[in-house]
């Protein structure tokens, strides 16, 4: 196997252009997302203080699961697209802050699709402004991930319905049970 390139991130990310809704096309399965989640998406909104409000949503067993957090530049003086994202868990009783890396490894010039990762290479997301992506573009992003050392065999395509759910459609999981189930791999 060829040695992976050093992980580089985008520079000069325009946060204003990055705001809005992004659909998860594929990701590495993680303990903090329901295993059977569909229509997974993230909505980013710029806060007055320059941080970003994060709303992650997915639908599992017909219910909408959501968690809100805040993203901010890891180094405010750097032009690298290295962000930190902080969520409080469990979502139904937000008391424990959990912070993770959110590195924009690639974004197209029109801000329509992106490759998101982090330095340990345990997490990877392929995002798109639409809830579907051209297979050729998808394969190019997978190749970019492979070049920087990701084991792309772990990628799981996220089922997306057409049309996607509107707003916060569907009953909410108000008990936060999805969070506990995700911890035990359900």
TrEMBL record:
Superkingdom of this protein's organism: Eukaryota
A UniProt-annotated Pfam family: Lipocalin_2
Any single GO BP term: response to reactive oxygen species
Disordered: region residues: 154-175
Residue intervals of the Lipocalin/cytosolic fatty-acid binding domain: 13-160
GO terms for cellular component: cytoplasm
InterPro entries noted in UniProt: Calycin, Lipocalin_ApoD, Lipocalin_bac, Lipocalin_Blc-like_dom, Lipocalin_CS, Lipocln_cytosolic_FA-bd_dom
Family designation: Belongs to the calycin superfamily. Lipocalin family.
Protein name as it appears in the record: Lipocalin/cytosolic fatty-acid binding domain-containing protein
Higher taxonomy: Eukaryota, Viridiplantae, Streptophyta, Embryophyta, Tracheophyta
């Amino acid at each position: 196997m060829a040695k992976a390139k050093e992980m580089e991130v985008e520079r000069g990310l325009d946060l204003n252009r990055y705001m809005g809704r992004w659909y998860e096309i594929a990701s590495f399965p993680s303990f903090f997302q329901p295993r059977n989640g569909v229509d997974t998406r993230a909505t980013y909104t710029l806060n007055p203080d320059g941080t970003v409000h994060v709303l992650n949503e997915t639908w599992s067993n017909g219910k909408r699961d959501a968690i809100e957090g805040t993203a901010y530049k890891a180094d405010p003086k750097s032009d690298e697209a290295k962000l930190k994202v902080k969520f409080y868990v469990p979502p139904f009783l937000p008391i424990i802050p959990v912070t993770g890396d959110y590195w924009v490894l690639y974004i197209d010039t029109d801000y329509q699709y992106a490759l998101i990762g982090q330095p340990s290479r345990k997490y990877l997301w392929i995002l798109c402004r639409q809830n579907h992506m051209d297979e050729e573009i998808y394969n190019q992003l997978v190749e970019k991930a492979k070049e920087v050392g990701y084991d792309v065999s772990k990628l799981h395509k996220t089922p997306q319905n057409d049309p996607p759910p509107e707003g916060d459609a569907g009953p909410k999981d108000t008990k936060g049970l999805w969070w506990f189930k995700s911890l035990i791999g359900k």
